[in-house]
Amino acid sequence: MRILAIALAAFVATPALAQTAPGIAPILTTPEAKDVWTHARPEIARVTHVALDLRVDFASQTLAGSAVLDVLAAPGASEIVLDVDNIDVQTVSELDGPALAYQIGPRETEQGLGSALTIQLNPGTKRIRILYNTKPDASALQWLAPEQTAGKAKPYLFSQGQPINNRSWIPTQDSPGIRQIWSATLTVPGDLVAVMSGDRLDGEKGQANADGSRTYRFRMDRPVPPYLIALAVGDLAFKATGPRSGVWSEPSMLDAAAHEVGDVEKMIDAAQALYGPYRWGRYDMLVLPPSFPYGGMENPTLTFLTPTIVTGDRSNTDVVAHELAHSWSGNLVTNATWSDSWLNEGFTTYFESRIMEAVYGKERAALYTDLDWDGLQRDLKAENNGPTTRLHGDPGATAGQLDYFKGSTMLRTIEVAVGRKRFDAYLRSYFDRHAFQPQTSAGFLADIRKRLIKGDKALEAKLQLDRWVYEPGLPANAVHVKSATLAQVDAKLAAISKGAPVSTVNPKGWNTQQWLRFLNGLPRQQSPERLKELDETLGLSVSTNAYVRSAWAVLAIANRYEPALPGIEKFAGTVGRGLLIFPIYEGLIAQGDWGKPIAIRLFAKSKATYHPYVAGRVEKLVAK
Length: 624
Ligand code: BES
Ligand code: ZN
Prior knowledge:
Helix content is 38%, strand content 20%. By secondary structure, it is an alpha+beta fold.
């Protein structure tokens, strides 16, 4: 604890706000920790606690109620600046006190920064109450009609905060470098269940109210960046997967979901053995409807998961390992700004592969890592090794998934250079020493130099860390892990390219990764006859595996293969996971006169089923 305090003091330059009470996380004031995606000026006054009290109204698609914010202000501070986007503010006052003057600045919509909400503070103001409601098109929230759910009978609501969407439903300082403790009271229709990314204070069914509604209370007593506050409301049921873990989903999916993520307890054990205690209490998962825009989201105590991972064979549990790993890399040690997202995603992708190896063995872990290498090469090539292939850059500027692939490859390269034992010991101490704190690239590099490299000139030269973080492209020392299982798929691909019939492929028992290697490895130019043979022999258009459907759609579109279109339309109108949907629209747009009208029609038909983030991205794509 003492060492921790000293380390913190070294990082925090502003004395006023360094004098924080116990439990209040420090902020970084170094230049590279300045977040250009927030209006907040935490060095003047910052939020340390958020208490939400909201009513969820499906008819008007709004959340309405209040946020009470605890304020820690520097001496003499006369205002606090919050982030809001598209929120209706009714009143701002001291808690049980006088009204406070406030001003809402212009709304920035290009990057989604929203508006500054500047509130005048009285001397000694400690708590502010904001009465507000959200708008139906709040960027974090997706309101689903009953038809978009598995049960088709009840509506559903969920939020997605990362990176800067939560300012559309929580008026607070929405920066990953400003950690806050929070609590929430949600009042929802009586037949629905509410879940959040914190501890539940009531039972599974909340508390019944006289008007037929139900109230659920939650609390997160460890400081988190606000992007990690999440909620979902729907017809939800729970099934335990172990003593400290379980899964929530709509009742009809619960058994399949619980089976798919059934290795999670082993994963938690493996993760703790690697990098130290799991510090968040329970680890539950929520399997959402198919419009969930990501594969997974690491909301603390309650990972959100796409239902597309439920393929029956547990071949997509890399997503679970990944989101669990974020409980350390991301949720404990958090990128101070989105310029350093690789500190979240690259570390997590490396950690994910270590969990997969511990639970399933080296070859299974190599499957994912080898596919990631393909992704790394694809992303680098698409950008011609240009400036967007830097790990550290403007927020959101790193291309594709390079923050994942290049970041994890960097850590693996260090591991191989210094040896696993030494690297693991370093990483474990890194998480311990920086727990519940923000981090920057510069901070990490200083730390690893001090604690691992320790002036070893040969090692420093060998690792080329600055090159990895600040330069484009891939340093020559990058380590490539190869999978024998995928090499067998490559052999089949080679035979097919030489004209062997598709029936020789025999994909019986293939997991998602084998399918992906195969489909993405097929030459992009294919004759209609060959496409028909592929589709009919391998059952691509009718596959129940969403990864297969997406990869097949991309190949078909690249060849303007029209018989595949009905299946593609159906897929893109149900599944809203960006990673599976964007390549379809990109492929259509790349096909110019043939593809663009199809993309426009498809989007018009499917738009209402997409989360605002996915709808916004696709809208930009089809406008190209
Ligand atoms: N934190 C990310 C999701 C995210 C990234 C949300 C960027 C908003 C902005 C999550 O941990 C993630 O990386 N999900 C992946 C799955 C993973 C196995 C690669 C996904 O969504 O596909
Ligand atoms: Zn991630």
